[in-house]
Write a structure and sequence with these properties.
Length: 290
């Protein structure tokens, strides 16, 4: 999709971090932008900031874990803008915990947003894009956690592997549609300076967490480490620019640069699978920087 000017982008998780940066970057490239998020005040504040750049922008409160909410978003965007061209299934949440110590509520919350959110996005928007039969592109935000594995963050790693697999399936399926003008990408960021490690703010009340003192030690340890780590991440604008370039060039993998320690971790995992050797913590996960 080399021509993005005048086209419409829908971005979930657009009130903060990478989604908000996408809204600004895509808008500055001439796109019209529909921002969606579950957090109404932050969304309105983000919409105003994006509009200040002279970007045509609309904001819709949407909970991506609910199929009806995503369907309503699609209807609103179609009636406001008349079409949809770039869909970014980007909303996501994080929490720590081992495979056995993660509570059912934690598993449910992470999977509802990170996996079902992308499923609802694909099931809602892809048929619309196919009907439109115009150049279009779907971007699903996974993570380098979707290409690697590690301890004590089980639900998050697993959810991001699911997003990578869904995205690859989508890519193959679109490729099998004759003359299909729709591309697909999976965004796999490294550590980015956003509010992902403060995701508790958006946890729905029916999936509430155990009291802090009742959480397993591994959960507390991971969340203590990650509470400060975000600020050492890269600027979300970098991810937005990387994504826009991939949309324009129709590239599937949107990855950190070659040599990034997360790329090394992914390569070591792939080599391990190829050799049928037992998993090791490679690259950044093993403490190596390159
Ligand atoms: N920040 C990182 O280091 C990093 C690394 C890899 C991948 N990611 C992924 O990037 C994506 C964006 O996260 P971010 O880092 O910008 O974090 P962020 O917390 O700054 O932004 C995420 C946005 O998603 C929204 N959201 C949460 N639950 C939602 C729901 N049910 N429905 C709709 N919106 C919801 C939040 O309100 C927030 O505005 C996520 O999928 C995340 O997993 C982030």
């Amino acid at each position: 999709m080399d021509q993005v000017e005048g086209k419409v982008a829908v971005i979930t998780g657009a009130a903060s971090g990478i989604g908000r940066a996408m809204a600004r970057t895509f808008g500055k490239a001439g796109m019209r932008v529909a921002m969606a998020d579950v957090e109404p005040e932050a969304l309105e504040e983000a919409r105003r900031e994006v509009a200040k750049h002279g970007i045509e922008v609309a904001a819709t409160v949407c909970d991506v874990s609910q199929a009806d909410s995503v369907a309503t978003l699609a209807e609103k965007v179609r009636s406001a803008f008349g079409g949809i061209h770039v869909v970014c299934n980007n909303a996501g949440v994080f929490c720590g915990g081992t495979t056995w110590g993660t509570s059912l509520n934690d598993y449910e919350w992470i999977l509802n947003v990170n996996v079902w959110g992308v499923i609802h996005g694909i099931r809602t928007f892809v048929p619309i894009l196919l009907d439109q039969n115009e150049p279009a592109h779907v971007v699903n935000t996974a993570s380098m956690a979707g290409l690697t594995t590690g301890p004590s963050t089980a639900a998050y790693f697993m959810s991001k592997h699911a997003v990578v697999a869904l995205s690859e399936s989508l890519y193959h399926e679109l490729g099998a549609v004759p003359n299909c003008p729709i591309g697909a990408s999976v965004l796999c960021p490294e550590l980015v300076n956003t509010r992902i490690f403060k995701a508790e703010r958006n946890r729905p009340p029916h999936l509430k967490r155990d009291a802090e003192e009742d959480l397993p030690e591994e959960t507390k340890m991971v969340e203590a480490v990650t509470s400060d780590i975000g600020s050492s991440g890269v600027d979300p604008i970098l991810l937005a620019e990387r994504t826009l370039a991939a949309v324009r060039e129709n590239r599937f993998w949107v990855l950190p640069p070659e040599g990034d320690p997360w790329r090394l971790a992914a390569r070591q995992r792939n080599e391990g699978i190829d050799n049928a050797s037992n998993p090791v913590l490679g690259g950044v996960l093993g403490g190596e920087q390159n």
